[in-house]
């Protein structure tokens, strides 16, 4: 079995390639971007994985359901509430149903299984934790706001002084996720944001120690090419955590827990010349990691499956 630690928009391309190429994969999904909105529980990363694997994702945006309409939001807007989070009408069915199941006492693990079954997916998508915790940005005046608010409502327009995982101390990795990690022959870190997609998973209490023990089978795929984020606010968030927003910062961040790191071929010269000697224990590998179409997604997945 291969287990992939994944976020949403930055991770789905590799997850989709791996799902096509491998019989037996499991996803451990980030949950720290989950939030309550209009009384509904929204789990963007879990949904991106489910929509992405079932061919329902709006691939251009990287989130939401393809060919969705936004009538609910238009009507909501006429009544006054803020409508900065674009919930589509089809997408809404997931949030309504999930919230109902939560209120009936089901766990997020059970609910996610319900949706993967409904969407006809033959893999386990395991939420990293059943306990709600969330990525919060610390902005001016030591104020904390949710990641979705920062990035979507405020369009990332103000300085971020820190990023914290609010309530993470109470979170535990689910038994299912822990067992999956132990039993996998390979653990892959998708090229998601290290701070807000993969970071919240590896910082669940107890998780780092578990991953250190499993280090030999951990492979990280870089979210950076030529020291720049492939997509999204990776560099802003790395800076906010006092991590150099470049290849060295990324390697440092994962060096305790990942034995192998896959970078783009474009970065081979820089890593071999300037970085490799500082990290003798890490196995650096190079491939074409920019997945701009489905063929490139499967090609990277094949490279990973045949080499690790
Ligand atoms: N991202 C945006 O940039 N703008 C949106 O309005 C937006 C709505 C949205 C609705 C459902 C969903 O599952 C995801 C959505 N996203 C939106 C993406 C999401 O906010 C982030 O990309 C992830 O949380 C980070 O992984």
Descriptive terms for the model:
single chain, 308 residues, alpha/beta, Rossmann fold, 3-stranded antiparallel β-sheet, 14 strands, 40% helix, 19% strand, binds ligand FO1
Describe the structure.
With 308 residues, this protein is an alpha/beta fold. It has two domains: 2-133 and 168-307, CofD-like domains (Rossmann fold), CATH 3.40.50; 134-166, no CATH class. Helix content is 40%, strand content 19%. It is built from 13 helices and 14 strands. It has a seven-stranded parallel sheet with strand order 5-2-1-9-10-13-14, sandwiched between helices. β6 (134-139) and β7 (143-146) form a beta hairpin. α1 packs parallel to α2 (44-53), α1 crosses α13 (294-307) and α4 (89-103) packs across α5. The longest helix has 15 residues, at 89-103. Bound molecules: ligand FO1. Ligand FO1 binds at residues 7-9, 33, 44-45, 47-48, 63-64, 85-87, 91, 148, 152, 197.
CATH fold-level assignment of the largest domain = Rossmann fold
Helix content: 25-40%
Number of β-strand runs: 14
Q: Approximately how much beta-strand content do the residues carry?
A: 15-25%
Overall structural class, as computed from helix and strand content, comes to: alpha/beta
Bound molecules: ligand FO1
Low-pLDDT stretches are none
User: What do we call the CATH homologous superfamily of the largest domain?
Assistant: CofD-like domains
Please describe the biggest sheet, giving its number of strands, its sense, and whether it closes into a barrel. 7 strands, parallel
| Total number of helices | 13
The helix/strand series, from N terminus to C terminus, equals EHEEEHHHHEEEHEHEHHEEEHHEHEH
Architecture per CATH nomenclature, i.e. the level-2 architecture of the largest domain: 3-Layer(aba) Sandwich
What do the pLDDT scores average to?
Answer: 97
Distance between the termini: 12 Å
Radius of gyration: 19 Å
**Overall outline:** globular
Name of the CATH first level of the largest domain: Alpha Beta
Oligomeric state of this protein = single chain
């Amino acid at each position: 079995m291969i287990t992939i630690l994944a976020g949403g928009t930055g991770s789905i391309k590799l997850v989709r390639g791996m799902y096509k190429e491998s019989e037996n994969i499991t996803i451990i999904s980030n949950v720290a971007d989950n939030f309550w909105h209009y009384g509904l529980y929204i789990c963007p990363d879990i949904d991106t994985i489910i929509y992405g694997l079932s061919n329902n994702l709006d691939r251009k945006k990287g989130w939401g359901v393809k060919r969705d309409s936004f009538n609910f939001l238009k009507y909501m807007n006429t009544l006054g509430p803020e409508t900065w989070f674009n919930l589509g009408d089809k997408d809404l069915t997931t949030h309504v149903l999930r919230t109902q199941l939560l209120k009936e006492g089901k766990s997020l693990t059970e609910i996610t299984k319900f949706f993967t079954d409904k969407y006809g997916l033959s893999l386990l998508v395991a939420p990293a934790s059943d306990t709600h915790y969330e990525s919060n940005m610390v902005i001016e005046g030591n104020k904390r706001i949710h990641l979705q608010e920062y990035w979507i409502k405020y369009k990332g327009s103000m300085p971020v002084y820190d990023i914290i995982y609010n309530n993470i101390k109470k979170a535990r990795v689910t038994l299912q996720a822990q067992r999956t990690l132990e039993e996998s022959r390979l653990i892959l870190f998708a090229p998601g944001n290290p701070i807000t997609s993969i970071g919240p998973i590896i910082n669940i209490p107890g998780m780092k120690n578990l991953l250190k023990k499993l280090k030999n089978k951990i492979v990280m795929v870089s979210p950076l090419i030529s020291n720049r984020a492939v997509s999204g606010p990776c560099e802003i968030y790395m800076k906010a955590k006092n991590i150099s927003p470049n290849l060295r910062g990324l390697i440092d961040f994962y060096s305790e827990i990942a034995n192998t790191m896959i970078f783009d071929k474009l970065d081979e010269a820089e890593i071999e010349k300037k970085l490799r000697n500082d990290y003798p224990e890490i196995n650096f590998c190079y491939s074409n990691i920019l997945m701009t179409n489905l063929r490139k997604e499967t090609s990277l997945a094949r490279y990973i499956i045949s080499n690790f």
